[in-house]
Amino acid sequence: MKKKFVLIVLVIAAFAVFAATAFRSALTPYVTFAEAGRRGGSVQVSGTADKATAHLDVETGLLHFNLTDRAGQTVPVQFAGAPPGNFDEAESVVVVGNLHDGVFEARKILVKCPSKYQAK
What we know:
Helices cover 27% and strands 41% of the residues. The chain contains two helices and five strands, in the order ααβββββ. The chain has a five-stranded mixed beta barrel. β4 and β5 form a beta hairpin.
């Protein structure tokens, strides 16, 4: 009976450690480009995309555009893939990825579009 109890406690503790580690690695903080450079690793940067600079390089398949973060710093962003469908209407853009050699390499692009339910 005692061995069974110890085994159950060990399994629960192992699961709790695994869950905490998985949850922590899934968290990606919102930062500015300056903070992203200091931190390294995967981060989220929210800002305004300069749609005039957005272009898709058909040879490499990379989307390039400039993003200005909430602190006012503008950094070029590259993303492997096409822009999200509503990229042109977006009020703000969130890019998830890493800052590398002055270019933000995005793994994901999230867009916030104006709500059709807000008063004009």
